[in-house]
């Protein structure tokens, strides 16, 4: 037992005994766990099977559930191999049990969880003793719990199954122990023969002087004595240090090593991975002292890290560039602005890849247009971004258009569509020829290397990015080209996305501006000012209109199409055109919005049947108001739009309560309700879109109160009112369009209105003509009296012959709010008939039919509008330059051909 083999035998036998004992314990525990798990699974399966068996709910609802279920539970218990299948009612009364004496008793146990509908398995001491019990709820047809099925298996029965396995486990352990003892004996016997009966001490001494392993390792090993002499050096150490053959036994300082390395090896200082130079190699040196665990001295290991350092350097560079690409993906393209994207490209590459970066783009790209895809011989690019430059006059400044000569690296990169590397700018004749003086200044600043990479996206060349390196940085190499291409490719895609957005945004803005009113029409009823502010992120569909109507009335329109972009702007244009067309027919406000609702529904139907299957539902709101300056009445209707504000002459603000109809397209043919207000002269009508009062920082009520505060106060002009409202309500970055329309009301005074009732008698025409001429004389309009009498007599005659009573005549004189115009003269003849006259050219043989032709010939405009009691035929005559030449030259002839009674 004093030999190494005997000690190994005892060690192996002890290990085997411990392993067999641990295995036996594990098997016993595992067997118990498996049996208990089997009991849980068996009881839960039996309980769930019986709880879900057909007819169980019907048996529970029968008159005697125990009589029906007891035979079935006993049969199921025997088949499942469990101790009992017990059915409990929700009141805890036992309905079935393997022990008939337990039937009918009320039990108390952990069944509340099952009563809530959740099955469970637990170890519980019940009427059968300590048991593994599974309880499962029985659900009725409506899903409610009506009973509980419990299946127990006694722990004693489970333990009995485990005890039956113990003899086999102990027998197997004894057999394994016997085989292990025999095997250990055989191994020890063989080891004793191979070691010749040596003890541990002799074996240790033998392996201390054995250096076979030292010669096999790939690290240099040195053993140095306490006196600094080399005791042992393996082959790898001799190769790394280039030691002489007789190095062993010599002092370490006499081996021709580097002074620093020799000093470390001769000292008693330990070292860990310290790098020293040996010839052309970089060695990582580890040194450990052998004392006090051995003789005085040290053990040194040497590892060649020359190639590892180079690989590590390249790996670090690759890691940094991967991180730079990752950062570029986060920092480039944060906005859809071409110039800002170019600036982000320049900023992300400085100073991690280049000392200076410049970006030049084609002019069409900056304007959102597509480039031609092929570069000309002489390329003109506009500098869009510069980063890393301290002086402003060294390179071309941002915004300058630079014409590059054909031999310049930028021109070559654009023409060939590939990067151009200039390792030494001083030797590049093509680069120096572009601008010799500027090139010399660049070289004097220490800039020595250039890498030009074209920006290509979707097959088009957008421009170039120039990477410059200055003094203190190595020149660009071929390995840098692929990275620069990857960085430029990512940036080019972002620039192209920004270009496409700019193009679409410009188109949408142009379309929207072309569809919005270019100015306010001339009218005399309202003093109007407006503001329109597009959203920061895209063009919306808000619009407004001021439409002059007949009889000096004026229509005010404000609308909003949901969404942004070309679709919203185009839809807005369609709706605005429709409102103009409907208004020209003098439709009532409710009828106009009803027609507009039908139009939007038709647009939605067309979108839904689009061939691409990607129809867009149009969401739009509109408010339409008509102001009559004669009566001061305001008729308005709204379809899903915020109501107007009325600022009274005293400065108080009122938000009228209006009936609100659904948004356009959702009315489903329902009538639109109208409200009428009497507005005092000098009041201000404020119409707006929801972007003015709704914002992410405030709700609708807060927005209305803010608008009330902005409008309340002393009397202001509409222009000043718009300025005050926009100053008070505008946020820094409005997310929706804002349209604001402010109109100050005016009234036509009694001196500007003349009105007569006319009997249905041709003889009544002459007195009205005479009264009309008298009123024109009072107004100082004698020069247009002849034409006015002619127009009025034709209109009155038509009303008498073809209309119905009552017949009335109204004469209005308007004066425009601003401008040099002299105003207009308006004739209105109303009657009780709803039939509308039609203009036609009478034949030579016709006795009549020339009245409306004369009206259309000598009036500037004429038309018909319907009223609740009939119609009004109106005509307008401009007061510019007095009467028309045609009227002056043909008056007597026309009056001689037709008289009032004949017509």
From TrEMBL:
Primary residence: membrane
Alphabetized Gene3D superfamilies for the sequence: 3.30.450.40, Histidine kinase-like ATPase, C-terminal domain (3.30.565.10), PAS domain (3.30.450.20), PPM-type phosphatase domain (3.60.40.10)
Membrane topology: Multi-pass membrane protein
Renumbered residue ranges of the record's region Disordered: 882-903
Intracellular or extracellular location(s): Cell membrane
CDD domains documented for this protein: HATPase_RsbW-like, PDC1_HK_sensor
Keywords carried by this UniProt record: Cell membrane, Hydrolase, Membrane, Transmembrane, Transmembrane helix
Database matches in Pfam families: GAF (PF01590), HATPase_c_2 (PF13581), sCache_3_2 (PF17203), SpoIIE (PF07228)
TM spans (from-to): 166-187
Residue span(s) of domain PPM-type phosphatase: 527-745
Domain of life: Bacteria
Alphabetical list of InterPro entries matching this protein: Bact_Sigma-Reg (IPR052016), GAF (IPR003018), GAF-like_dom_sf (IPR029016), HATPase_C_sf (IPR036890), HATPase_dom (IPR003594), PAS (IPR000014), PPM-type-like_dom_sf (IPR036457), PPM-type_phosphatase-like_dom (IPR001932)
PANTHER family with a match to the protein in the record: STAGE II SPORULATION PROTEIN E, STAGE II SPORULATION PROTEIN E-RELATED
Protein name (Swiss-Prot/TrEMBL): SpoIIE family protein phosphatase/ATP-binding protein
Source species of the chain: Streptomyces glomeratus
């Amino acid at each position: 037992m004093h030999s190494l083999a005997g000690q190994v035998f005892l060690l192996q036998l002890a290990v085997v005994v411990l392993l067999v004992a641990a295995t036996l314990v594990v098997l016993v525990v595992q067997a118990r766990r498996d049996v208990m798990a089997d009991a849980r699974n068996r009881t839960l399966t039996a309980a769930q099977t019986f709880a879900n068996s057909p007819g169980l709910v019907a048996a529970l609802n029968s008159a005697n559930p125990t009589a029906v279920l007891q035979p079935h539970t006993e049969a199921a218990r025997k088949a499942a191999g469990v101790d009992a299948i017990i059915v409990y009612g929700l009141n805890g009364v036992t309905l079935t049990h393997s022990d008939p004496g337990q039937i009918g008793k009320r039990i108390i146990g952990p069944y509340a969880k099952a009563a809530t509908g959740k099955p469970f398995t637990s170890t519980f001491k019940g009427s059968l003793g300590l048991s593994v019990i599974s309880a499962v709820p029985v659900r009725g047809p409506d899903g409610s719990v009506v009973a509980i099925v419990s299946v127990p298996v006694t722990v004693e029965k489970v333990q009995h199954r485990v005890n039956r396995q113990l003899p086999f486990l102990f027998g197997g352990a004894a057999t394994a122990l016997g085989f292990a003892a025999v095997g250990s004996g055989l191994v020890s016997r063989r080891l004793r023969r191979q070691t010749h009966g040596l003890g541990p001490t002799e074996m240790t001494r033998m392996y201390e002087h054995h250096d076979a392993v030292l010669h096999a390792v790939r690290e240099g090993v040195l053993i140095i004595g306490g006196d600094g002499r080399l005791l042992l050096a393996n082959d790898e150490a001799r190769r790394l240090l280039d030691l002489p053959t007789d190095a062993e036994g010599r002092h370490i300082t006499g081996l021709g090593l580097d002074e620093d390395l020799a000093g470390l090896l001769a000292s008693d200082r330990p070292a860990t991975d310290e790098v020293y130079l040996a010839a052309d190699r970089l060695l990582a040196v580890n040194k450990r002292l052998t004392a006090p665990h051995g003789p005085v001295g040290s053990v040194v290991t040497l590892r060649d890290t020359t190639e590892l350092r180079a690989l590590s350097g390249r790996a670090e560079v690759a890691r940094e560039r991967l991180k730079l690409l990752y950062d570029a993906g986060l920092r480039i393209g944060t906005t859809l602005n071409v110039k800002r994207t170019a600036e982000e490209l320049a900023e992300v590459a400085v100073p991690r890849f280049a000392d200076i970066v410049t970006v030049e783009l084609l002019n069409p790209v900056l304007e959102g247009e597509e480039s031609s895809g092929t570069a000309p011989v002489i390329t003109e690019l506009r500098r869009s971004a510069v980063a890393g430059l301290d002086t402003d006059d060294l390179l071309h400044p941002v915004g300058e258009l630079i014409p590059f000569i054909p031999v310049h690296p930028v021109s070559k990169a654009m023409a060939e569509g590939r990067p151009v590397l200039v390792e030494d700018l001083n030797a590049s004749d093509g680069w120096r020829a572009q601008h010799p003086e500027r090139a010399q200044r660049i070289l004097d600043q220490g800039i020595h290397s250039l890498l030009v990479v074209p920006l290509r996206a979707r097959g088009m060349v957008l421009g170039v990015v120039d990477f410059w390196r200055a003094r203190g940085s190595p020149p660009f190499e071929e390995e840098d080209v692929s990275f620069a291409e990857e960085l430029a490719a990512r940036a080019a895609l972002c620039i192209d996305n920004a270009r496409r957005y700019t193009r679409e945004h410009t188109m949408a803005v142009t379309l929207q501006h072309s569809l919005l009113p270019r100015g306010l029409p001339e009218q005399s009823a309202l003093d109007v000012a407006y503001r329109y502010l597009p959203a920061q992120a895209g063009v919306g569909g808000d619009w407004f209109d001021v439409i002059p109507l007949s009889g000096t009335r004026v229509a005010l329109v404000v609308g909003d199409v949901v969404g942004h972009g070309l679709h919203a702007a185009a839809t807005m244009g369609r709706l605005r055109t429709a409102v103009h067309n409907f208004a020209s027919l003098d439709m009532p406000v409710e009828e106009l919005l009803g027609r507009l609702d039908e139009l939007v529904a038709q647009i939605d139907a067309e979108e839904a049947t689009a061939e691409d299957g990607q129809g867009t539902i149009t969401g739009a709101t509109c408010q339409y108001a008509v102001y009559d300056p004669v009566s001061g009445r305001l008729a308005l209707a709204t379809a899903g739009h915020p109501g107007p504000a009325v600022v009274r002459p005293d400065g108080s603000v009122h938000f009228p309560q209006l009936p609100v109809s659904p948004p356009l397209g959702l009315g489903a043919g329902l009538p639109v309700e109208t409200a009428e207000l009497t507005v005092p002269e000098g009041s201000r009508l404020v119409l707006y879109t929801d972007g003015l009062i709704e914002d992410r920082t405030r709700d609708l009520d807060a927005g209305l109160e803010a608008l009330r505060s902005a409008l309340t106060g002393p009397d202001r002009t509409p222009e000043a009112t718009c300025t005050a409202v926009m100053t008070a309500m505008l946020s820094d970055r409005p997310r929706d369009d804002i349209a604001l329309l402010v109109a100050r009301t005016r009234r036509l005074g009694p001196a500007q209105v003349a009105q007569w009732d006319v009997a249905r008698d041709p003889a009544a025409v002459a007195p009205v003509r005479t009264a009309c001429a008298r009123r024109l004389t009072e107004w100082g309009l004698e020069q247009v009296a002849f034409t006015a009498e002619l127009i009025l007599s034709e209109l009155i005659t038509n009303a008498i012959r073809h209309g119905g009573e009552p017949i009335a005549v109204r004469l209005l004189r308007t004066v425009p709010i601003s401008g040099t115009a002299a105003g207009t003269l308006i004739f209105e003849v109303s009657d009780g008939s709803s039939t509308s006259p039609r203009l036609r050219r009478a034949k030579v043989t016709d006795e009549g039919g020339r009245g409306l032709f004369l009206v259309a010939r000598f009036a500037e405009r004429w038309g018909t509008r319907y009223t609740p009691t009939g119609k009004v035929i109106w005509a307008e005559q401009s007061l510019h330059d007095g009467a028309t030449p045609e009227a002056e030259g043909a008056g007597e002839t026309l009056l001689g051909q037709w008289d009032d009674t004949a017509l």
